[in-house]
Design goal:
Length: about 190
């Protein structure tokens, strides 16, 4: 269900871009959600915390209303970048790389992060795969022996990131054959 919603949102955003509706329709269409992580599901290598409306297990931290609001703002800001071209080392509308995308999204929400994925992995607290929460930073080893790719976790095993492979800011499945074996870990900064 989530995947079809995301696909529709991206399609709607691109078709509405000329009318100026993209920024308003994308965050609402994504339903990136703010629910509490309540149960673990699935057998994928990267299990994720899911919202099922059940009581929150005591092992999982609950979200304060302030954190939930921050995560919502992060999600909305990130969605505005969808379709922005990818450019290694880029930091503007003409092209942006993964770590600059993450840095700019968080900076727009008054959270300062270092510039590179290699530096960003040293910020915040470690998050176990089964405890991933929307807004967490997710790191991958792609072209180098150190953390060389970063995205923002959206829930349901998805992340938003500036993808060199897709050539733009996009949403990808972290359990794909490409990302799953390259996953290094996650950090929580909210």
């Amino acid at each position: 269900m989530m995947q079809s919603t995301l696909t529709l949102a991206v399609s709607d955003a691109r078709s509405d871009a000329a009318s100026g509706q993209a920024l308003r329709s994308v965050p609402a269409a994504f339903d990136l959600g703010l629910g509490l992580p309540t149960a673990y599901r699935g057998t994928a290598a990267l299990e994720t915390a899911e919202v099922e409306g059940e009581p929150v297990p005591s092992a999982l931290p609950s979200l304060t209303s302030h954190a939930a609001t921050e995560i919502d703002h992060i999600s909305q800001t990130a969605a505005r970048y969808l379709g922005t071209p990818y450019r290694f080392g880029g930091d503007g509308a003409d092209g942006i790389d993964c770590s600059s995308f993450v840095q700019q999204v968080f900076h727009a929400n008054q959270i300062d992060l270092p510039r590179t994925a290699r530096e960003q992995i040293n910020v915040g607290s470690n998050v176990a795969p089964g405890e991933l929460r929307k807004g967490d930073l997710v790191f991958f080893q792609t072209y180098a022996e150190y953390p060389s790719h970063v995205g923002i976790y959206l829930g349901d095993g998805k992340m938003i990131h500036a993808s060199s492979g897709k050539g733009e800011v996009t949403i990808s499945d972290m359990n794909s054959d490409y990302y799953r074996p390259r996953y290094l870990g996650a950090k929580r900064v909210i």
